[in-house]
Amino acid sequence: MENFIPSMAAVVGLTALGAACGLILSFAKQKLTVERDPRFEAVLNALPGANCGACGMPGCSGYAAKIVEGQVEINLCAVGGAETVKKISGIMGVEAVEVKSRVARVGCLGAKDVTRTKFTYHGPKSCNAAQQVMGGFKTCQYGCLGLGDCTKVCPFDAIHMDEKKGLPVVDFDKCTGCGNCVKECPRNIIQLVEKKFDVYVICKSLDKAPVMKLGCDVGCIACMRCVKACREVFKDNPAVDTAIQVVNFLAVIDYDKCINCGKCAEVCPKNVINPVKVVVET
């Protein structure tokens, strides 16, 4: 009985202490809780929920939070496009900013039958892994390695490998311009271009023609014919000299000036400026 009394006192003391801590925590929770801006849920519901990360945020929830906090623009969602921007502008009470619909374009025509390799690669089926082995097995240091890393990161099933050619092909109807494939490519041969443009330079080689031809039969030879054709188009426009230039032995289109006439594609002897959509061969 003598031992029982101190034990009861300890129990009562601990119970009282627990109750006091509970009250303190409850009070602190009420005082320290930050109420979420009611616009957050509205903005989150306006986003497509793809969680692709194209906006640079960790998913749609992260992007919605940044929008409500006023830390980012409201037009960063490539998937939602103009419709999403319109909804969010109404919620946030700001002006809707124009969204340019973009798609991924693959800048390489180096299929298996027109390119050469430095060695036989036996490693993991990954472009990033292959790139770590002596800079890749392709003779052309700028060409597609064809192991499909880009296809693995597309959340919209919009890019597939043409197994016969060994090149990725983009389905423009499915592509949202999220840019995941662009980030994944170790050779930076994929670029986002406004969907309205048909012309695109399908080569990334910066080598002079004699060197480029050692590894590929279909690369840009920097012949300047595209530049001459474009200058002819703009000959009556003193504000624009040309919308395409040859920079470091590669034709480069300035889409801020390009009128999508296709004259550059018509005169290209190697067909590396091609307005025609490529068809997947399986």
CATH architectural label of the largest domain: 2-Layer Sandwich
- N to C succession of SSEs: HHHHEHHEEHEHHEEH
Distance between the termini: 88 Å
Over the alpha carbons, how many angstroms does the gyration radius reach? 28 Å
Biggest sheet features: 2 strands, antiparallel
What's the quaternary structure here? Answer: single chain
- Which geometry do the CA atoms define? elongated
- Rounded mean pLDDT score: 88
Structure annotation, total helices: 10
Number of domains as seen in the coordinates: 3
Residue fraction in strands = 5-15%
CATH class of the largest domain: Alpha Beta
- Helical content band: 25-40%
Low-confidence stretches at least 5 residues in length (pLDDT < 50)?
Answer: 276-282
Structural class: alpha+beta
Q: What's the total count of β strands?
A: 6
Strand order of the largest sheet: 1-4
CATH topology of the largest domain: Alpha-Beta Plaits
Topology:
Elements: H1 4-32, H2 39-46, H3 59-68, H4 81-92, E1 102-106, H5 127-131, H6 149-152, E2 159-162, E3 167-170, H7 180-184, E4 190-194, H8 209-215, H9 225-233, E5 244-247, E6 250-253, H10 263-267
Antiparallel strand pairs: 1-4, 2-3, 5-6
Helix pairs in contact: 2-3, 2-4
What's this entry about, in short?
Helices cover 33% and strands 9% of the residues.
Describe this structure in words.
- This protein is α+β, with helices and mostly antiparallel strands.
- The protein folds into 3 domains: 39-92, 3-methyladenine DNA Glycosylase II, Chain A, domain 3; 103-196, 2-Layer Sandwich (Alpha-Beta Plaits), CATH 3.30.70; 198-277, Alpha-Beta Plaits (2-Layer Sandwich).
- 33% of the residues lie in helices and 9% in strands.
- It is built from 10 helices and 6 strands.
- The protein has helices spanning 4-32, 39-46, 59-68, 81-92, 127-131, 149-152, 180-184, 209-215, 225-233, 263-267, and strands at residues 102-106, 159-162, 167-170, 190-194, 244-247, 250-253.
- The chain has a two-stranded antiparallel sheet with strand order 1-4.
- The protein is elongated, with a radius of gyration of 28 Å.
